[in-house]
Amino acid sequence: AMLLNTEISSSAGAGAAAGALVRVTADLDRHTLAFAVNDGSEVDSGVTLPSAVRPYALLCFEGDVLQFVET
Fold this sequence. Notes:
This protein is an all-beta fold. A hairpin with a 4-residue loop joins strand 2 (21-27) and strand 3 (32-37). The model has no long low-confidence stretch (mean pLDDT 78). The chain has strands at residues 3-9, 21-27, 32-37, 43-48, 65-70. It starts with a strand and ends with a strand. A five-stranded antiparallel beta sheet has the order 4-3-2-1-5, with no helix packed on it. It has no helices and five strands.
């Protein structure tokens, strides 16, 4: 399967836990999108992805980090 894992680490923010790790998995073969927070289980978003996607992330706080991980 063609998977794209994105890990976003938040350093601050109202209502957000500092140091939280959000894992986003886009399965381009199955056209699915799932999320997991910290070491939690993945939750399917219910979104059907189109055949072509572009990653986008809004990093609002100093120290926020985005990392793409090939799986």
